[in-house]
Amino acid sequence: MTAELPGVGQPPRRRLRVGAVVTALTATFTLLCCGGGTAAFFLTNLGGEEQSMVSTEQTCGEDHRVDVTGRMPRMSDYGDSQLRNAAVIIKVGQEMKVPPRGWVIAVATAMQESALRNLANSTVAGSRDIPNEGVGRDHDSVGLFQQRAGWGSVAQRMSPDYAARKFYEKLLKVDGWERLPLTLAAQRVQISAYPDAYAKHEDTAGRIVNALAQGAARTVRIADKTVCDRASAKTIAASGWTSPIPGRVGSGFRTASRPQHNGVDIAAPKGTTPIHAAATGRVLVARCDPDHRGRLDCDVDGYPGKGGCGWFVDILHAGGYISRYCHMVEKPLVVPGQEVRAGEIIGRVGSSGNSSGPHLHFEVHRDSDRSSLGAIDPVPFMLQRGAPLNGSSPRQAAR
């Protein structure tokens, strides 16, 4: 169940420019979804080679300790000194007993403010005499979080430990900060002239926290304990993701028998099961998908071979990921352009469109590409973010 868009069948297009793709998203197109057969939840679609950005080697540890002096992992966009600064930010959060969600917010904020570099300032006297990793010139801001004079002395603000501690102190005073979208939580601390700039770093910040703190971005707080891989619907992982509905995957991604199935199916009762946004983002599409005969009759149950996704929603998230939710029982509760929060109810499970029974067909796409070329296996993707789709019961990691 993915989109049949212009370009499908042509040579694969990877790493598309987000601006160009988002502009193209307004174009009219037809989705092919959930083609039948005799087995439940058979979905048809144009195929593409399987891709996954998720490492199967990474686990969620029990103590999430971070080593600020040891060997840093290798990342394409951040070097050793930058990741070491991120490690300091996480370590300070641990010392202050800030939940891992706070670590992700803090790292993402420093990514935006300084690219995780401890910056001096060409207009701030004495700042260049303090060990630094570059020179900025934004007002009187210095350090990882580009804190101004009111946050402390120049030497204090250019101490990664001090700067992180001050950030957390203000974050913890923000009412309900753990449930806020990352960009709102960060903005209420930073009071930036660019309040929407933080969100784009959320996914990478989560991967950095996972790499440095044994999968800590995959945890969620339940009954005052930090547990791994348990985010579902009303509980949000430190990564900012949650499973859209409870239940196990009954039909997988591009299996041998169904190589064109670009998502997974999770069975659930019709009409009573709410579907939750898997992460904070912006609604791209919320409408009835035409069937193979061009009919817009999503208010009735579909059937195998009918074609179309029924009532469905596409949401664009940080990092250029898109989540898709198909076969809703009625018109979605959201509209295009709407900003939604992780866990927000966007519709209810149904069987509209090309469907053989009530279920949620769930897809994840990368590179802001809604076509089958952008589809990736959502099972490892969601597990890597602490929001497994298969209802597994992972071990607890008390902290």
Detail the poorly predicted runs: 1-32, 35-57, 392-399
Q: What proportion of the residues is helical, as a percent range? A: 10-25%
Regarding quaternary structure, how should these chains be classified? single chain
Query: What is the overall number of helices?
Result: 8
Description:
By secondary structure, this protein is an alpha+beta fold. Helices cover 20% and strands 16% of the residues. It has helices at 18-24, 80-95, 100-114, 154-157, 160-171, 182-190, 202-212, 378-384, and strands at 2-4, 30-32, 120-121, 135-136, 219-222, 225-228, 249-251, 264-267, 274-276, 281-288, 311-317, 322-328, 339-340, 345-348, 359-365, 375-376. The strands form 5 sheets. Strands 7, 8, 10, 11, 12, 13, 15 and 16 form an 8-stranded antiparallel β-sheet that branches. The radius of gyration is 22 Å and the shape is elongated.
Give a nutshell description of this structure:
With 399 residues, the protein is an alpha+beta fold. The N terminus and C terminus are likely disordered.
Secondary structure elements and pairings:
Layout: E1 2-4, H1 18-24, E2 30-32, H2 80-95, H3 100-114, E3 120-121, E4 135-136, H4 154-157, H5 160-171, H6 182-190, H7 202-212, E5 219-222, E6 225-228, E7 249-251, E8 264-267, E9 274-276, E10 281-288, E11 311-317, E12 322-328, E13 339-340, E14 345-348, E15 359-365, E16 375-376, H8 378-384
Parallel strand pairs: 3-4
Antiparallel strand pairs: 1-2, 5-6, 7-8, 8-15, 9-14, 10-11, 10-13, 11-12, 12-15, 15-16
